[in-house]
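Hi there. Long-time user, first ticket. I'm pasting a complex I've been working with (about 230 residues overall). I'd like to know whether the download I got is complete or cut off, because the file seemed smaller than I expected. Thanks.
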Amino acid sequence: DTGVSQDPRHKITKRGQNVTFRCDPISEHNRLYWYRQTLGQGPEFLTYFQNEAQLEKSRLLSDRFSAERPKGSFSTLEIQRTEQGDSAMYLCASSPDLLAASYNEQFFGPGTRLTVL
Amino acid sequence: AQSVSQHNHHVILSEAASLELGCNYSYGGTVNLFWYVQYPGQHLQLLLKYFSGDPLVKGIKGFEAEFIKSKFSFNLRKPSVQWSDTAEYFCAVTPTGGFKTIFGAGTRLFVKA
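Hi, the file is complete. Here it is re-exported in full:
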């Protein structure tokens, strides 16, 4: 399968623990996005990488949330001191570098479902 | 602030009925517009997109959407739905030249066979 992959698919953790998710984009895609999706809502933008550079991030991605893409390939999203409100589906998407970012289709992964007890 | 509004959260149709899903956005500049679909058990995938030119765009599986700039709308249509169109549909907007995509809350479509 050459699509976007995410690991783990499901994560159950206790409040206060740290969690880290991984995203592997489609190999030739330079652009990578993280989103959060809660029940009944659409994906909510968290951050965007162009290669290894984090070019835009939501105000949500501060304090307890951090994302990295150290070598411009895979990316990790870490949540520190998890809270019950962090329970959600975390989606990763990638897109090619053919046109300006806003013109490109995003290819989504299956998501990581986080449950904080 | 940018926002995307989808008018219907749940739609139930019989096969062969016509479909129109509403989408309105709020943004002061030019935008690129998308409809994504998520079939049961599958990933989000692109249905169609609009950048410029002809405001009526055609996508996969017989779907089309019309951009009406004066109304800030990008409604999705299909003349005759099939049971296999049962899915959740998301309207999305990215400011031209920007990176941040805003999604609507989604519309769940159920097509009765």
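A couple of notes from our side: DSSP finds no helices and twelve strands in chain B. The CA atoms of residues 48 and 59 of chain B lie 4 Å apart.
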